[in-house]
Design goal:
With 130 residues, this protein is α+β, with helices and mostly antiparallel strands. It contains 3 helices and 5 strands, in the order H-E-E-H-E-E-H-E. The protein has helices at residues 2-22, 60-69, 103-110; strands at 37-41, 47-54, 75-83, 93-102, 117-121.
Length: 130
Amino acid sequence: MKNRATATFTVAATLAAALTACSSSDAKPAADTPPYKITRQDTSGNQRRVSVEVTNTKDLRAVFDDVAGKLDDDAGWFVEINCKTGGTSKADNRLANGKKAVGSIGAATTGLEDGKTEYEANKGATCPAS
């Protein structure tokens, strides 16, 4: 009986740690994802924005997929990927846009089915060396 209780506690603690790690806004990119930095992530509302900075245009889809994979609050998520350089004080150097629907609120907000994503790179966008 003591071993069963210990095993149950260990499994519960492991699951709690995993859930906490996935919800962190300071999450690191996956090992095969180019480096990026989240510069803004809304934490409330039905429609939320996530702004991401990168230093080059390499594998932007992987960056989007990594960011979107960590968004799990019920909302319509709008992800913008910007170059760290090349923008101005009035306009970002936008490289790509995407969105993700989480839950029925997310579906209503984005027009996508729950759990679905949409991604589009801006053709011809460049990222000057930083």
